[in-house]
Amino acid sequence: MHYPPLAALLLGAAAPVAQAPTQFPATPPVTPASTSVRTERRWWKEAVVYQIYPRSFADSDGDGVGDLNGITRHLDHLKALGVDVIWLSPHFDSPNADNGYDIRDYRRVLPQFGTMADFDRMLAAIKARRMRLVIDLVVNHTSDEHRWFTEAVKGPGPYRDYYIWRPVRADGGPPNNYPSFFGGSAWEKRGPGDQAYLHYFAAKQPDLNWDNPRVRGEVYDVMRFWLDKGVSGFRMDVIPFISKDPAFPDLTPDQLRHPDRVYADGPRVHDYLREMRRDVLSRYDTMTVGEAVGVTPDKGPLFTDASRGELDMIFRFEGVNIGRDGWRTKPWKLADLKRFYDDLDRSAGATGWNTSFIGNHDKARAANALGDGSPAAAKALATMMLTLRGTPFLYQGDEIGMTNYPWTRIEQYDDIAARNLYRDQVQAGRVSASEFLPELARTSRDNARTPMQWTAAAGAGFTTGKPWLPVNPNARRVNVAIQTGRPNSVLEHYRALIRLRRAMPALVYGAYRDLDPDHPQVFAYTRVLDGDRLLTVVNLSPRRARWALPGGVEPETTLLDTGPRSQRGRRLNLAPWQAAVYRLR
Length: 585
Prior knowledge:
It is built from 20 helices and 23 strands. By secondary structure, the chain is an alpha/beta fold. The two termini are 23 Å apart.
């Protein structure tokens, strides 16, 4: 990695992000040069967020499962990385049919993860390091072991209408043809009578009836419980799905190809989000980000336009899904990825805001999905993510370039989605195991859930026991310990990028412009704010690339470069996966 002297001085001058409302006074809107976009300064726009999947982050008691005390022990790693906000995937009590996204008790910690005292101690340690915590809000559905559902399944009573029930058809079939994301019908018959309940996901994850005001009141009380504890907001799981069409018409053949788009287009979703903002979120200093599964590009701004009072940001997945078609991989072109980012930036409009991310717990490892699995590819993708406009969300392990696990057998997988896909595809005779398994190995979300690789020791420093998922064999050479302080490592590159982002307001609020949308290898764009002009150039390919500087674009200072000096006159000669950031004249 190349850091010229001026860049080294700049990267050492980072100021901390303000951590309390009183430390972040109101400021005039920032007006990026060369654009009409105006955006208010907010702490969550300037923050870097790090997602922790607690089951796989760090195990403190040797049972092979990560826990809250393990997280607390490794907070200094996150602070040194430059993280401002931690997003904690579900830590609630759960039977773990879907690894915590099936909640049995919203006010209790999963015993495997620890106790409420452990949570409070972790939160205090996070705040002591001037970081914030946001947690998952999983309220489209609960576990079927939640008290509300165990009462609802008995028949008529105060909790029956907490969920969605419809009569089965005369032939005993489901009420309509809605499919579940985890395979089979989205309806399950249970309890007395001839009624079935709706579950967009596993049968053990019944959907809540948000049309019932008592349900919304329960959800808002849960939110207040955690906000009063001191969390700073929520990542909202499949939040567009909370409103349903009460008629439940059968889906057309075209709709069945994309049922998520139907599920995300309920008639009252925006009413409920505005109510949530009015009754709960507006009374706290929060950050909210919605998992926008099924939200089409034209409807994304409806969730994030600040004047509408709904969410602060959403995750749109067209970029990270560009190389997959369901459980299969597919070829993709860089020009298509650049068009997505251009559309994403424009869709923010005058008062919206975006997220920037390359992976999470539901995706295969970014270094493989968008790269070739090499450290150089991991650094190139990090450069892209941390210099685009939007709040960056890092996923645990990406900061060291963790890669997909070499799966070979279905028995190795834990994920309910992978096992159900095998049943529906291979065991049902649709495809052969020899065709299915190599594709699943590349796309399975279990790739992102293998244990965090801290050291080269047995168990990768994650656990002293048997890990709940296998440790990647490459942990001996891909781990935090071996990369710490090593100038050319993926970890040190992430740290440098985060320092650069914090030191350069143009990388947060600056206008974005793609300089060469059709180049098949190079992603080159400017970020401009109040006369400060920056250029990012990334070779997103495993081959050497040349890129000619357009007129009016003249690098003055190299702020960061992952390869050898690239500029030769008006041309940049880029090694495979080389990435650089320049200040322009």
